[in-house]
Specification:
- Chain A: It is found in: Cytoplasm; Nucleus, Nucleolus.
- Chain A: InterPro entries: ExoRNase_PH_dom1, ExoRNase_PH_dom2, ExoRNase_PH_dom2_sf, PNPase/RNase_PH_dom_sf, Ribosomal_Su5_D2-typ_SF, RNase_PH.
- Chain A: Its main location: cytoplasm.
- The complex is a heterodimer of chains A (about 190) and B (about 280).
- Chain A has about 190 residues and is an alpha+beta fold.
- Chain A is built from four helices and seven strands; from the N terminus they run ββαβαββαββα.
- Chain A has a single domain, classed as GHMP Kinase, N-terminal domain (Ribosomal Protein S5, domain 2).
- Chain A has a four-stranded antiparallel beta sheet, with helices on both faces. Chain A has a three-stranded mixed beta sheet with strand order 1-3-2.
- Chain A is globular, with a radius of gyration of 17 Å.
- Chain B is built from seven helices and twelve strands.
- The longest helix of chain B is centred in the C-terminal third of the chain and has 29 residues.
- In chain B, strands 1, 2, 3, 4, 5 and 6 form a six-stranded mixed beta sheet that branches.
- The chains are: A alpha+beta (about 190), B alpha+beta (about 280).
């Protein structure tokens, strides 16, 4: 489970396990993401987010090493205090790491909020998100800090988007360091 | 021999074309398919809808119908109306869509359209309010794909924009004495559309090549997709990159530049069509 500030998401990864014949792919693993909101049933927004997460994970997981299997990633939102999508991304990556699945690269999620006066705020709280002019979420890959996933809410100019992207790529270093530390802690005990 | 190669080794078949900077259907990498749009009751023939448009992007055919109904505004936003987009991918449009509850692609597309409307502020919800906390318009925008040949998002956004431009809302007044609403069907006003967002989709091949307006075959072979939505001021309403191969910031910038040029082309097309139907 990952919790930046008060946003908390629990991720559970199952796989590579046997896939149903209707869902199996002959040459790669079939990845499925289920996102459960804190309250209520999953709706259209969750489906859209599941698609984002699934395609992001599919880009890094070396599915060709496990053909005809199913990898299921279940995310449960425990609390939402802003930057939910990037929290889900981070949880997903850590779950993939923890499960020991073969990955081409790591990724991390960063949310940038563009305020009315043009200042960029990283990892905004729910309040800051509401007041912001635009919210941009990026998934940055660990190899050369390329953009794996981008999602925007609100409108911004092209320069502002590039600035947010640069800020996100910079912030990705901190998050990858956090991954390194967490994994080190986990494996140093045993 | 070439037909065999296309079904047996589709990726290799495509790569041979991409090396020459063109595609099997003869297009360049940055070229769009022929776009046609039909708006209104006479050409588009949804006579029951308040606004409708049919967009054809090559073979991809998308029809959008807008129906306006009256409802009470929500308690927490008393001066706002509603816009409810819904994208449907019925089983008639492509083999892979089965009948039943909407699949992930349809739901993700619906969410995307809702986000585009919200982000671009093309319709301000306050404009849809008739009487604060009593009466407001609800616009049900149904976008149905009739033929799926790739690039659903671009066609849907275009169809939505064209249909909304065609909507004529009857004027509604609230009778002071009875408190009931009176709809005057004789007097109609067009919707106030503030911004004109246009979507441009790209498919990423082999992590490096970007091609514009992918067909269904190209989408299946692609390693990722990017959709950029711009408005007339060159502002980004949405950068939608749902996973797929990683891209550098520079490549994204190329996409954005192409999207801005596409916006101009689409705007010209839509203005031409609107002008041709206005005298009616």
């Amino acid at each position: 489970s990952v919790s930046p500030g008060d946003t908390s998401v629990l991720a559970g990864l199952y796989g590579p396990a046997e896939a149903k014949v209707s869902k199996e792919l002959p040459d790669r693993a079939a990845l499925e993401v289920l996102l459960r909101p804190k309250v209520g049933l999953p709706g259209v927004m969750e489906r859209s987010r599941e698609q984002l997460l699934r395609q992001t994970c599919e880009a890094v997981v070396l599915g060709v090493l496990h053909p005809r299997t199913a990898i299921t990633l279940v995310l449960q939102v425990l609390s939402d205090a802003g930057s939910l999508l990037s929290c889900c991304l981070n949880a997903a990556c850590m779950a993939l790491l923890d499960a020991g699945l073969p990955l081409a690269a790591l990724f991390c999620g960063v949310t940038c909020a563009l305020q009315a006066d043009g200042t960029i705020l990283l990892d905004p709280t729910a309040r800051q998100e509401q007041e912001a002019r635009a919210i941009l979420t990026f998934a940055i890959a660990s190899s050369e800090r390329k953009v794996l996933m981008a999602n925007t809410k609100g409108s911004c100019s092209v320069e502002e988007m590039q600035q947010c992207l640069a800020a996100a790529q910079h912030a990705a270093d901190t998050i990858f360091q956090f991954y390194r530390d967490s994994v080190r802690r986990r494996y140093s005990k045993s | 021999l070439s037909i065999c190669s296309r079904t047996v080794e589709p990726l290799e078949y495509y790569r041979r074309f991409l090396k020459e900077n063109c595609r099997p259907d003869g297009r360049e990498l940055g070229e769009f398919r022929t776009t046609t749009v039909n708006i209104g009751k006479c050409l588009c023939s949804i006579t029951t809808a308040d606004g409708s448009a049919l967009v054809k992007l090559g073979n991809t055919t998308v029809i959008c119908g807008v129906k306006a109904e009256l409802a009470a505004p929500a308690a927490d936003s008393a001066n706002k109306g509603y816009i409810v987009p819904n994208v449907e991918l019925p089983s008639l449009c492509a083999e892979r869509f089965r009948s039943g509850p909407p699949g992930e692609e349809a739901q993700a597309a619906s969410q995307f359209i809702a986000d585009v409307i919200e982000n671009s502020q093309m319709i301000v919800k306050e404009d849809l309010c008739i009487a604060s906390s009593k009466l407001a318009w609800v616009l049900y925008c149904d976008i149905i794909c009739l033929d799926y040949d790739g690039n659903l998002l671009d066609a849907s956004v275009f169809a939505l924009l064209a249909a909304l431009k065609n909507v004529q809302l009857p004027s509604v007044t609230i009778n002071e004495e009875t408190g009931l609403s009176e709809v005057n069907l004789k007097q109609k006003n067009p919707l106030i559309i503030r911004k004109h967002p246009v979507a441009t989709s790209f498919a990423v091949f082999d992590d490096t090549l970007l091609i514009v307006d992918p067909t269904a075959e190209e989408e299946d072979l692609a390693t990722g997709t990017v959709t950029i939505v711009t408005d007339e001021e060159g502002r980004l309403c949405s950068v939608h990159k749902p996973g797929g191969s990683p891209l550098t910031g520079a490549k994204l910038q190329d996409c954005i530049s192409r999207a801005i040029t596409r916006h101009k082309e689409v705007k010209k097309l839509i203005d031409k069509v609107i002008k041709s139907i206005t005298p009616k």
